[in-house]
Amino acid sequence: MFARTLRRMKAFRRFARARRGSAAVEFALVLMPFFLLTFGLAEVAMVGFAQTSLDFAVSETARQIRTGQAQTNGGSEAQIRRQLCSELNSFIVMGCDGNLFLDVRRFTSFTDASNSAWNPVQNNQFSAQGMGYQPGQPSDIVVVRAYYRWKVMTPLFEPIFENVSGGERILVSTMMFRNEPF
To answer: If pLDDT is split at 50, 70 and 90, which confidence band does 46 have?
Structure first.
């Protein structure tokens, strides 16, 4: 029995001195944090790029309302939504059907507009109830809000990036302005 224990000790010492597999072991230890960092960075970059695309699309589409082109040309909510979707998809392909929501409201003063903090996210759920389309008349104060339902791409990061249940993040872009005298 002593001889067998001695052989095991020699084998353990020989294993401890061996350097042939150390690079593989070190790589295995670094691999998981490296991939977590890489996928997390990619997820943050995609969300940021989608948010920037949404901001640009809202800016370009709200210009139609601010200058009165949407009102004088009889632009309906569906036409403004299509234009918003078209602008949104000019940089990154984002599916608008069922994911893009538009809320255009007219206010009598900037104070009323800033105090109307209506939030469509209630109880960790997104609800499009109460959204409307009121582009207003000349010199009216208008707030244009667009909401996009973004699906988190990496399931491991869903608890970190989601702000509604179901592994989704609601991206929001808002513009407040006074309509030009058209």
So the answer is: very high
Alpha carbons 105 and 131: distance in angstroms, whole number: 8
Q: Helix, strand, coil shares of the chain as percentages rounded to 5?
A: 50, 20, 30
Per residue in 5-42, pLDDT tens? 878 888 778 767 767 777 778 888 899 999 999 999 99
* Residue pLDDT, tens place only, 65-77: 999 999 999 889 9
> Which one-letter DSSP state was computed for residue 164?
B
Single-letter residue type at 80: I
CA dist 142 and 177 (Å) reads: 6
Domain that holds residue 31: 2-178
Residue 163 DSSP label: S
CA nearest to 149, candidates 97, 83, 107, 111? 97
Instruction: Extract the tokens encoding 180.
Output: 């030009």
Total tally of structural domains belonging to the chain: 1
pTM of the model: 0.81
Strand partners, 141: 107, 178
**How many of the other CB atoms lie within 10 Å of CB of 180?**
12
Q: How confident is the model at residue 117 (pLDDT cuts 50, 70, 90)?
A: low
CA 65/CA 70 separation, integer angstroms: 5
